[in-house]
Design brief:
This protein has 101 residues and is an alpha+beta fold. The protein has one domain (5-99): Alpha-D-Glucose-1,6-Bisphosphate, Chain A, domain 4. The protein contains one helix and five strands; from the N terminus they run E-E-E-E-E-H. The protein has a five-stranded antiparallel sheet, with helices on one face. A hairpin with a 4-residue loop joins strand 3 and strand 4.
């Protein structure tokens, strides 16, 4: 898995290509670097993790650090990345809800 390239379909935004840089099945996380796609970034590294909660459930923590090619576009890119992550989390929530109905 580490080093693999994945293709991600971004709803309404096209396709992105990421390289998985690290994963740990026991710790339930993976990290990846953005290679190319619809966002014009200097670089981006992200981490997706599923963590246990005290009530026996779980939560997802999805974070990213990136540099913009153009500093003036940094805030707009942060909003775009946040929107893409939120859309992904919404889709995941819908899938989990559907599997429990």
């Amino acid at each position: 898995m580490d080093g693999d390239v994945r293709y991600v379909e971004l709803t309404g935004a096209g396709q992105a290509r990421d390289r998985i840089t690290q994963h740990d099945d026991a710790e339930h996380y993976y990290t990846y670097d953005y290679l190319d796609g619809p966002l014009v970034l200097g670089s981006m590294s992200a981490r997706f993790a599923v963590q246990s909660t005290v009530d026996g459930g779980s939560k997802i923590v999805w974070s990213a650090q990136f540099t913009a090619v153009d500093d003036a576009q940094g805030a707009a890119l942060a909003q775009a990345v946040g929107g893409l992550y939120q859309a992904g989390l919404n889709s995941l929530t819908a899938l989990v809800a559907a599997s429990h109905s």
